[in-house]
Amino acid sequence: MTSWFSALALSVLALPVLNGCASDARTPSSSSPSALSFNEMSAAGDEWLELYNGGTSEVDLSGYAIADTDKDTGEPRTTKAMRFPVGTKLANGGFLLILLGKSNSTPGPYAASACLPGVAVGCFYALFSISEARGEAVHLLAPNNDKVSSILYPADLAFEAGANLTACRVPDGMGGLQTCTATPGAPNATP
Question: CA nearest 100: which of 130, 69, 137, 135?
């Protein structure tokens, strides 16, 4: 394991309870990926999403993936899925940032300097983007591509690029999506 990967893994594991859409809300109670929720999403300007671990212990995401939806079949588009490398773990109460629309890149992890400006956490890169105009489902997939959870980015939340608004859950990890001030790497907040 390289030192930059170790540093990112430690920073992801050490993060406190943080960030916040619809169909994957659950009562967190275990260390399985089912304790995860899509917590905050941005589809205008810099596109990104956060996963939140509301469970009671660390979740090993090795081999799991994030995927958008195939327009023809309505199923997860596994050919463009971003698969987490071996050793990717998310602490209970922690979050994980994934930048979207990073064509021709590898998943990462990447240091904070290669992620969002002004945000002091590392991230992963996904090849796909999500449509804010038509809304689009994003999926968490098990290593065998079974759906663990899905979330629909709501088409009725249209933000101008640079508005610093996102779709998130308040409180973190619970309930449906609502309009929030962008808070990657921090607790979700309504405007």
Answer: 130
Using the CB atoms, write b or e for 139-172: b if 16+ within 10 Å: bbbeeeeeeebbbbbbeebebeeeeebbbbbbeb
User: Domain locations in the chain?
Assistant: 3-181
> Which tokens in the block code for residue 155?
């088409």
Q: β-strand 95-99 against 124-125: which pairing, if any?
A: parallel
- What pLDDT digit, counting tens, does each position of 128-164 carry? 998 777 778 999 999 999 999 999 888 776 666 667 8
Integer Cα distance of 96 and 173 in angstroms: 13
Is residue 28 a contact partner of residue 173, using CB atoms and an 8 Å limit?
A: yes
Residue pLDDT, tens place only, 62-88: 999 999 999 899 999 999 999 999 999
Cα(88)–Cα(129) distance, rounded to whole angstroms?
A: 22
Q: Which of 88, 69, 42, 62 is nearest to 128 (CA)?
A: 69
**According to CATH, what is the number of the domain 3-181?**
2.60.40.1260
Pairing of strands 147-153, 95-99: unpaired
